[in-house]
Structure formats: structure tokens, C-alpha cells
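Hi team,

As requested, here is the filled-out complex form for the magnesium ion run. I kept the field names the same as last time so the parser does not choke. Let me know if anything looks off before we queue the next batch.

— J.
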Amino acid sequence: MHIPTNLNDAIVIGGSYAGLSAAMQLARARRRVLVIDAGVRRNRFAATSHGFLGQDGRSPDAIAAESKAQVMAYPNVRWIDGTAANAETRDGGFRVTTEEGALEHASVLIIASGVVDELPAINGLAERWGTSVFHCPYCHGYELNEGRIGVLASSAISIHHALMLPDWGQTTFFLNDTFVPDEAQRAALAARGTVVEAGAIAQLEDTATVVLRNGRRLVMDGLFTATRTRIGSAVPEQLGCALEDGPTGAFIRTDGMQATSVPGVFACGDAARAAGNVAISVGAGAMAGAAAHRTLMFG
Ligand code: FAD
Ligand code: MG
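And here is what came back:
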């Protein structure tokens, strides 16, 4: 049976900030690049993106759309709307198949699939995610204008949120029967001015009001919580890329050139670090693209 295939120099899995940045470097090196993207960016819930120099306060969709247009202006870049389902080493390179049935080969692979957030199971949280409930103070803390901030405990790492957020506003730490600070932690919270509120959360209401099961109702201007994260694609595990444990979940181990433990496979963006943002993803993508190009040239 004849199976049609396409030969690419590089396949980039994930066409958001990290993947597009990697593709840009390879495009400008006149290499044949294929970007496969499922179109589900992590920050799609937020109306504005902050902290990325030159784009502060712009919509995340607009940043991604303009970035895609700039990359796709290079005639040596192709794009597939789809999900990379399987990747394996083949003929000294890689073979990638998509859920939609595309079959592609390339000499190098760049994984930029981001992470998926698993939200704490609190009534009313999911519909406020990205609008009044956030995980990253640097991204969304400033706009709360030093108002009332709640931290919703989700695991032991929530103590870091509870200690950080006083720099952005008067902070209340809701333990939600999930986390119990020890004496040293209570002293540290007090030193930062964080108020501790015990008891289970019944639900969130209005903008960011926390209703406890004991009937207390605390009006907040914004809430922060730590999610569990998982890598947005099965490809790194299929290829045997070494992973590392981060405070919120596993991520792909990479070296200073964004190379994974598997020769010819690079990774960048949130999938390849413990805690990411747009600027760091774009920087890591640029490094991954240049490093992948080096491998294409010199092996
Ligand atoms: P993503 O942007 O998540 O993109 C990954 C892409 O890969 C997606 O398009 C996905 O569909 C695709 N993909 C996954 N698996 C596959 C597959 N198997 N095949 C094909 N495609 C695949 N950061 C900031 O700097 N400023 C902010 O203000 C900010 N606000 C945020 C608000 C919220 C609510 C959240 C959750 C995050 C926010 N972030 C912010 C963080 C930011 O979203 C991430 O750091 C950034 O999106 C990471 O970029 P990335 O390219 O690595 O991954
Ligand atoms: Mg990524």
C-alpha cells in the first residue's frame, strides 16, 4: 500500500507562543517547518495578557493571531489544525500522526504543547477562571488595584500564594479544609499581614465573593489558586522523554538549549518548565528553534 507522506525538516507540536517562536527561527533559516496545533491555548479564558514586554494588556488571542500571521507569511511553513496523537522515531527522524489522520515525517521535533490546568473542585470557580480567579499574581495581580484578595488553598504549595499576594492587596487565605499551616507558617503569614480563614468553601458568588459552609460571606475583588497541571500531549511519554516533577505537576526535562533527553527532540514553553508565562515561552521557543536548526545542520 502506498502511504502518502510529507517530508519536513521540523515538526512543531503546538502552535501557540512557544511553538510559533520556535517555528519563526526555523522559518527564517529557510527550513521546511510544519506546525500542528489543536488551538486550545492555556490563557484562552483571559481577556487580557500582562507582563509580556511590548504587548502588555493586549488580548491573548490577538497576540497569538498576529504571531501566527507573521510566521505563516514565510512560504516554507505549513500549518495543520489538528492534534498530534502519536509520534515515534523512524528512519533517523520522526513520524507523527494526527487524530484527524495526517501522517508526517521530520528530522527534528519540537514539543510546545503547553499544559492543561486541572482546577480545584469549588462551586463557581470554573466559570470565573481567567476573569476573577487566577493562578499567576504577576499576570493578574496588579489590576486588582490593591483590593481584597483571596487565596483558595488547593495543596501545600498554596502557602506560597498566601505569602506572596500581600504585595498586591489585603490578602485572606481560605484554608477550605485542604491545608493546615503549622506554627512557623502561621507566624510567617501574620508577618505578611495575611488573614487566615478556616472552614470549607460552599461556593463562589458575584465577582469573587467566597461563601463558607459555616455561613460566612467574604467579599473579595479577586481570587488566586494553584491548579494541578499536566502536559498537554502524550507525545513526550511516547518518545520516552525524561520528565521532572514540578510543584504543580510533571514537565519535560530540557537542557539550556531546550533539548530533551531524546536526541532530535526539543521542548519549550509551559510543557517544559515548572511555571511558565508568555514571555518565557517565547524566549524558550526561540532557543528551541535555533537549537533544532543547529541539529539539522550539524547533527
Ligand atoms: P499554550 O499557549 O498553552 O499553547 C499550547 C498549544 O499546543 C495549544 O494551542 C494546544 O491546543 C496545542 N496542543 C497541545 N497538545 C497538542 C497536540 N497533541 N497536538 C497539537 N497541538 C497541541 N501568561 C502571561 O504571560 N501573562 C498573562 O497575563 C497570563 N494570563 C493567564 C491567564 C490564565 C487564566 C492562564 C491559565 C494562564 C495565563 N498565562 C499568562 C500563562 C500562559 O497562558 C502560558 O504561559 C502560555 O500560554 C504558555 O505558552 P505555550 O505556547 O507553552 O502553551
Ligand atoms: Mg509549550
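Two things worth flagging: The chain has two domains: 5-117+228-298, 120-225. DSSP finds seven helices and 19 strands in the chain.

Thanks,
J.
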